[in-house]
Specification:
The structure is a single chain. This protein is 28% helix and 20% strand. By secondary structure, the chain is an alpha+beta fold. It starts with a helix and ends with a helix.
């Protein structure tokens, strides 16, 4: 009887194992890669309705350098004109390229007073020239302009009544002559006792001279710097009356 029960039990267990094997799925094929969403299937941004790629492209177009760059003629197109209100009288810094206007109507031989301590120049009325012997300097005032468009008067000392000059004045005059045709820098050379003239290596555009008469330029340059009477503070100081 025990043998019969054992045989029945083993037969039942065998049937259960067979049923378990048939319930295990036999298809182990992996999900193909093409079931993953493609880039174009990415959900659009909820705020703009654009995909991330489209948003990046839109930002790039919006800030394109070509749309931000100012054209060289922008000021002319916008109707903007620079108004000259100040014209200094000076020798240019050694780092600045300059040009000199090649026009005899835009220069003047005259006497001036140079206040070296203040770095200022004064134009003097002709009536006072004889009253201030040895105090005034004969110069030629040239109309000049820097590369960045700043107008100024460049004083170059003329030979004295004895006709003598020195290498400083001669080299500065040579620099002016070249500056009428080319952009130059003027650099003092103490070892040489004169000025070095350095010509620009590149092709710099011609200067844009302002539409001012020479009279207007001189008026601006010496506004507040005119000596027209013996009562002027500078004259009184020179004569020991101040």
């Amino acid at each position: 009887m025990a043998t019969a029960m054992t045989a029945a039990t083993e037969e039942k267990m065998t049937d259960e194992l067979k049923r378990t094997d048939t319930d295990i799925p036999t298809d182990t094929t992996e999900t193909p890669n093409d079931t993953w969403p493609a880039d174009e299937d990415v959900a659009p941004d909820e705020g703009t309705g654009a995909t991330a790629a489209e948003a990046v492209k839109a930002d790039s177009d919006r800030f394109a350098l070509s749309a931000l760059r100012i054209d060289t003629n922008f000021m002319a197109e916008a109707g903007v004109r620079k108004v000259i209100t100040t014209v200094p009288v000076k020798r240019p810094p050694k780092t600045v390229f300059i040009r000199v206007l090649d026009d005899e109507q835009y220069c003047l031989d005259t006497y001036v007073f140079e206040d070296r301590e203040a770095g200022e120049w004064f134009i003097v009325s002709r009536e006072l020239w004889a009253s201030l012997p040895g105090e005034l300097i004969p110069v030629r005032l040239y109309t000049a302009i820097s590369r960045d468009g700043n107008l100024f008067l460049l004083p170059v000392r003329l030979p004295g009544s004895d006709g003598k000059s020195n290498p400083w004045h001669e080299s500065l005059q040579a620099a002016v002559a070249l500056a009428k045709r080319r952009w130059v820098r003027i650099v003092a050379n103490k070892g040489l006792g004169g000025y070095d003239v350095l010509e620009a290596a590149g092709d710099i555009a011609e200067p844009n001279w302002p539409a001012l008469s020479f009279q207007e330029i001189v008026d601006l340059a010496f506004r507040g710097h005119r000596i027209d009477s013996l009562g002027h503070p500078i004259i009184k100081a020179l004569l020991g009356k101040a």
